[in-house]
Each structure stands twice: as structure tokens, then as C-alpha cells.
Amino acid sequence: MDRTINKAMLLGTQDVYEKVFDLIDHCGKEIGTKSVMCPKLSESEWHKIRTIDFATLLMNCIMAARNDLELFPKRYRIEGFRELKEDFSIGTISPEQAKLRLQEIKKEFKIEEQKRK
Q: Can you give the pLDDT at residue 1?
């Protein structure tokens, strides 16, 4: 994993490096350390760590690298929308709160777009 982060640092932008670092950090701290814990984690906890969290971090890396190449139209992370959809579907967020969160996500995208210019 050290070689991967070194390659990202040498060849990618700061955004790509940060996303790769987050992924490697997750693999080491979350997956690696929790795989040897006693008692073992439940199947649902493992699913969240190995599948959901890992997939989100991996997608962030892919989108950052893709955007860094500037060969295709930019794509953004969708985790903010997923979280919002999940909160709304289980009823932990009101429609008014959902609207406010959606506005925050749009602002974040605009700020990221301005940084890239």
C-alpha cells in the first residue's frame, strides 16, 4: 500500500492523493485492525466496513482520478445524495431539513468546481 500512496503523491493532484490516502487509511485502520479483533464483528458491521464504506472511498478515488485527467466531463461524489436519500427514506430528516441539506451539497459542489478552475 505504501507504493500506491507514493505513486498517487508523485503523479496525481492533491485531490487524488487525499482520496487514495483516505482509502488506504480505511483499509489499514478499519479493515485491517478490526479483522483481528476479539470478539469478531457482526456480519452487518463487516458488510458496512468492507462493502459500503470501502466502495464509497474507492468511488471517490476513481472520480478524483477521472476528473484529474480532464478528458471527460467532471463527475462528482454521490455520497451526500445517498446519505440524504437514506435519511429521508427512514424518516430521520424532515422535508425542510432535506431541502437545506440539498442546498449545502450544491454549495459544496460549486466550491469544488471553483477550486478546480
A: 55
